[in-house]
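At your convenience, could you comment on the folded chain following this short note?
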Amino acid sequence: MKKVELLAPAGDFEKLKIAIAYGADAVYAGVSHFSLRCHSGKEFNYENFAEAVKYAHERGVRVYATVNSFPFENQLPLVEEHILKLKEIGVDAMIVSSLGVLMKAREIAPEIEIHLSTQANALNSWDYKAYRDLGVKRIIAARESTLKDLQRIKEKVPDVEIETFVHGAMCFAYSGRCLLSAVQFGRNPNKGSCANDCRYPYVLYAENPETGMMFKLEEYPEDGTYIMNAKDLCLIEHIPEILKSGAVDSIKIEGRTKAPYYVGVVTKAYREAIDAFYEGREFDKEYFMNEILTTKNRGLTDAYLVKRPYERHDTQNLETSLTHGEWQVSGIVNEDEETFMCKYKTFPGDVVEILAPKNAKISPVKNEIGEIWQENGKWILKFNKIETKNGKVLEAVHSGNLNPIKLPCKLPYLTFLRKKVEFSPNGV
């Protein structure tokens, strides 16, 4: 049985390394030009993107470059130059939406796979056949597609790979075809500049055109005004069903603008879920969901892959657009594996949980810096002393402190240290 690919987001070089460390088979990323996440892509320029592609390839991980915006006429020379540079860098595929960009990419770089973006809204076997005939290797299914639809399409067009989103932010508009940000802020979502206007609270009014009177539409308490705020997609409980279907070649996690911790935790959870299925091990839904819930989210929904949109009444969060998570990242281990960078605040006596990359090996230890032990299957670290790499002892360390802090022993690079925290209702 061919294993389904796990595809994770890489908004910058650090997140690319984290996605790989925590189990991704492939990552998708982009230099800011012509990507639908142009703001996140600003962390990549051509030079360090080339380094990132090399880093991934050395570890057997594929890189898909996003070129999925819809360019205007005056941008075409820049798009052509961009495709040439991606060809030189040696990406494994280009993700495109525009039919014209698709054809130009095939002309300039025929050796590079073309993956059709979800923005192209391919919904049926006619679409898949047409794009296949134009040289598309893989189609990223429209968010509105159901698993049954994908099975039927796969039967009719077996030579086209199908990729589907399984986790991350959901767009209020039809497969992202939205102009709300363009109207309110002059930021075109289809150029990669979405301002997330659907996440804002809105006040509704009704006007009587005969009298000119304007009435505010009052709401029931706690109903909220977040009328366009979609919950986040989470299909981890449906992984066995998706993999058994045989319709999907790649499952995709959304989130190039999300935090490094999100990339690590979500990638690891889906990696473990996929491996559990293929290895015939117990599929522990509770464990996987508990891991997902340590990340910030807008509430979770399984959206439309297993049910039709009109059958769903739980896909929106009308109360708040504030994200929340049950855990706070205290630190992330540096490349020397002997120190970490503080991301929150840490005091002597603090106890944190160790979240390590895939296949990491950890051993118990106890010394003046701290103690590491295993408890209920999890690795725990207690700090006895906060000491910088150069030997300075601190009463505490807070985020923003750029001094590497000593660990009681070596831990794998990109390991997260996390602690459970209480958040107040207003998200603080």
